[in-house]
Amino acid sequence: MDTLNSHPAPAGEEIVEVDIATAGSRIAAYLLNVVFTVLVFVPFFYSIVLPLMEHWDEQNPEFLDQIAWNGPLVAGSLLLLLVYAAAQMWLMARDGQSFGKRIMKIRVLKSNGENPGFWGTVMLREILFNVIVSIASMIAGYLITLVVQGSPETAELIGNALSQLLWVVCLVMLFNKTKNRRTLQDMLADTVVVKLPER
Q1: Taking a C-beta distance cutoff of 8 angstroms, is the pair 137, 160 a contact?
Q2: Span 63-98, pLDDT tens digits
Q3: Which residue in 1, 21, 79, 170 is deepest, having the highest Cβ count within 10 Å?
Q4: How far is it, in rounded angstroms, from Cα 43 to Cα 7?
Q5: Rounded-to-integer distance, Cα 157 and Cα 166, Å
């Protein structure tokens, strides 16, 4: 069983030994978060996105009237998205857990066993990592396209492929026990995902 090496605790504090979260539990937590996010986006999709798609090419689009008629649903869907995002960020900052991680009984810790807080879990591990992946993939796509003299569409396709490749790399890293199953996200934020101890 993989355990996280912890530093000696200060006098009077209890040392809790934790096990590294399995690849399966981390994948399950991710998929649960995807399901929750899709469910939260359903009202937004039907109240705003669908009317926009249906009337996008019309000379006198009626989608504004339809969106206005759906006013309460629009407001409710936006409020639901805001509450969901705020709740996820609050849980990650306070406990190192998203909804999916909470259900799977795993959490994010710094490599020294401390709580990474808002900066470590939300800003570094989630937001900054995704920004870096997007920008790096886009730049690499355009550089490769310049070399092979491709079109902007080709650059976008290459960038998307590189972005997906990085996520595949992270998936493979989940199975590396010798590195405590740390992904690129974990390395950026100096974190590790662990099982919650039984109470």
Answers
A1: yes
A2: 555 555 566 777 888 899 999 999 999 999 999 999
A3: 21
A4: 47
A5: 14
For residue 178, being part of any structural domain is answered with yes
| Tokens standing for residue 12 | 């009077």
Name the residue range of residue 92's domain. Answer: 23-195
Total domain count, the chain: 1
Tell me how far apart the alpha carbons of residues 3 and 20 are, in angstroms, rounded to a whole number: 6
Report yes or no on 18 lying in a domain. Answer: no
Maximum Cα–Cα distance for the chain, whole Å?
A: 73
Q: What digits encode the pLDDT tens for the residues 32-54?
A: 999 999 999 888 887 776 666 66
**Is residue 3, in this structure, part of any structural domain at all?**
no
Burial of 151 (0-12, 13-18, 19+ CB in 10 A): exposed
Residue 10: inside a domain, yes or no?
no
CA 162, CA 16: separation in Å to the nearest integer? Answer: 39
Structure tokens at 163: 């972005």
d(CA 1, CA 18): 10
